[in-house]
Amino acid sequence: MAKDLVIGIDIGGQTSKCGIVDARGTVLAQTVIRSDNHTTVEPFIAELAEALNHIIAEAGAEGRIRGIGVGAPNGNYYTGTIECAPNLAWAHDRVEFAKLLSEQMNGIPVSLTNDANAAAVGEMTYGAARGMKNFIMITLGTGVGSGIVIDGNVVYGHDGFAGELGHTTAVRHNGRQCNCGKTGCLEAYCSAIGVARTAREWLEMSDEPSELRSLDKITSKDVYEAAKDGDKLALKVFDFTGRILGEKFADFIAFSAPEAIVLFGGLARAKEFLREPIQKAMDENVLSLWKGKVQIVFSQLKESDAAILGASALAWEL
Amino acid sequence: MAKDLVIGIDIGGQTSKCGIVDARGTVLAQTVIRSDNHTTVEPFIAELAEALNHIIAEAGAEGRIRGIGVGAPNGNYYTGTIECAPNLAWAHDRVEFAKLLSEQMNGIPVSLTNDANAAAVGEMTYGAARGMKNFIMITLGTGVGSGIVIDGNVVYGHDGFAGELGHTTAVRHNGRQCNCGKTGCLEAYCSAIGVARTAREWLEMSDEPSELRSLDKITSKDVYEAAKDGDKLALKVFDFTGRILGEKFADFIAFSAPEAIVLFGGLARAKEFLREPIQKAMDENVLSLWKGKVQIVFSQLKESDAAILGASALAWEL
User: In this complex, which of A157, A168, A254 lies closest to B134 when CB atoms are compared?
Assistant: First the structure.
């Protein structure tokens, strides 16, 4: 029987999404399991394998799975390991994830990379970056991740950990504390958490009226909703966030001269408020030869499928 | 007869160095012509071809030249053109340099890239980066250039102009004016001109005693000589320069996870004063996973040969 299907798995801090995908990018069957029910990797892998076997049976895909692609925080493409992932209780050390999962799945090959690299591969295979050979994927979620594609290949670097643009420095002096231990990282300002923090800081610092004042706990989604209502403070938060992104994008362009920067993730939904300040700050900070030449593209992938598609795209290369 | 030799040409603002190189990297014959005697490209190419034919005859290399590699400011690998090079009077617009030179040289193929990319290829073929597949070359000369190597290939990007790390932002607010038109660029602080400027600014701003005060016009070489004499202000200038370099290197590492950053160019001779502050600032600003893992390497190539070797290395790929 032809091995004409792949499995994509997106491992997040709370849930892991799994799907069976055909060559056209159609998700034939999918399921979700909790990522946070276990503190060691073996029982998590056992539960994951059970869930995969279930959807394989459901889709009539026995014997047709060519490979499994996994996107995971701190996933290393070269070694198939997940290392020191703060949000995964079973991966605080170094776990041989690809090897263990392959063993549990009767030897089906498993390819693994970090979630942002998987998203970049997905976007190149099925999404907004189809046909592009040089682009940078920026994922704006709980954190800020990145996947860099040069000449059609994801950049893994010397050690497999390349593409940590969320931890480049956006604010050099007296920058915000980042989860990584450094200060001033892009992620500390432009992640969902960073946006909520900006709003909270500004509410505290000023008396400016804002519908956000009535809320107990402010999330980036609240800021987005307020901006849609025309709330001035919320709109300024997105201006500020977009400016910092655009300033850093100018530096990234000087590195790899991409044709586009592709934005993906929950916060990228706020594109009507982010696009302009990003473009403006980028154009102000980039060498004149690139002014107006690098596109800002927002992901076109259906959010619920995107993570699975991204991971599955890895498996076709196996 | 075997085509077992190549020619390397390094075009600078004042002089162009040319050499015939064998496969081991031995420079068999070399010559230098002025780059600044002409305001249009054709007579410059004619003079260059004459000089090349002269050293070909001198080395008995007629019929043995496989290709010509050229490193030039604003050289584009994809198109073989030099575009808007402010320091070359005959290339203020766009000149088809590779095509014109090949025509003048009876069809010998010509490959062209910017000078920093050429230096990176040279370092990988003959120098400190032999055996490395992932490194970043930083040239500290009149300006700050860069050549980025990923998986053994120079990164040219979508348009052929990738690797302009000298024009990433080192100082975000109220930064120094850079020649490129932007402010706060790495080049404005860490080039030879930037170092001299730092010294002049600090002399003006303070009463600190320094042997540099007796000089009319201060160059980076003067600052280096003063530092060797133990001059405290000069030593602080190198500390400052090294810190800015190290801070930016941390960002570059987050991009491509190289195994080393290789420093080349006139200012890299001050390695005894730059190495420590670079390493310290880099380690303070890099994600913990890279702390202490990325080498800072100073070029081992003999300065007089290095530029020719770098350009010549390009020609082997033809």
Answer: A157
